[in-house]
Specification:
Elements (H helix, E strand, L loop, with lengths): L2 H17 L3 E3 L7 E5 L9 E2 L1 H11 L7 H12 L8 E5 L5 E3 L3 H14 L4 E9 L5 H11 L7 H6 L7 H7 L9 E2 L1 H12 L11 H10 L6 H7 L5 H12 L3 H6 L6 H11 L14
Parallel strand pairs: 3-7, 4-6
Antiparallel strand pairs: 1-2, 2-6, 4-5
Amino acid sequence: MRAASRGRVAALLVLWLLASGLSAAHAGSGKKSLVIAVDKVGPTQEQLGRAIAMETVHYWMREAPETASGRTRFVRQHIAATATRKAFRAVIDPDGIPRILDGHHRAYALAKIQADYGVPIKVRLDIVKDYRGWSHARYAKHLTGKLGVGQFSPSTRRRFPARAKGSAEHRVASLPRSILHCADSPLRSTIGAALWYNGIDGDHFIDYVEFVLSDRLRRDKAVPTAKRKLAGRELSSGAVAPIAKALFGSHSNYLTKLARPQHKESVRATIRKVGRRPRATRPRSWGW
């Protein structure tokens, strides 16, 4: 193919991507990367912890001015301008919706800031798999089986048992179209806070670690149900304390088991350092 023809093909491809609401990035690098408005990003999980996501918002905005105009300017200069630096791993589903595989709380926080301040925020996605042209059944089976992706609410799992015919397609069909439409999971917020407040980054663990821990703690009758419900609305010490005590106490070995191989030693060290008195409040050293 002559250079001129190749140029026309490349130009048509870029125009097609733009028409789909996506823009190409890192052209020619061999890695498919897309930039898209954060509210157009879909999740691969039904729920997230909104309270802990809002903690992220408050952390990012801790140095913003008090005035409305000053805060809007801060968002534009310090959040929107840097949002594409760290990419999200993602797939594109058969309907053309980009769905992130991890970083759901970060994406929700960015989308919430965009909605609250009216400042457009774009994010960068590294595309792991493009399912356009696939049937929904084949896509769902590959996503949940081959990629091992997708976390679903207890009610969805009860309605569509794993071994039932068509279960994967029904479960995946329950995923929201936008990150902003994820349902709230109070226990996830509390788990996230318990880890964060005690110096452990959620990225040190396997994907969907809060979901895995949520399922385990729901079976632990020693963890008060009332505290779990409260935690999604208010990250108070009374809500976080029993969860932190359980994670760093009776469930500490399981917590270590869920750490990624390169982070197991640091997680063990943190658990030893925390001991029997884990933090249930935000460290004062954070200054916000």
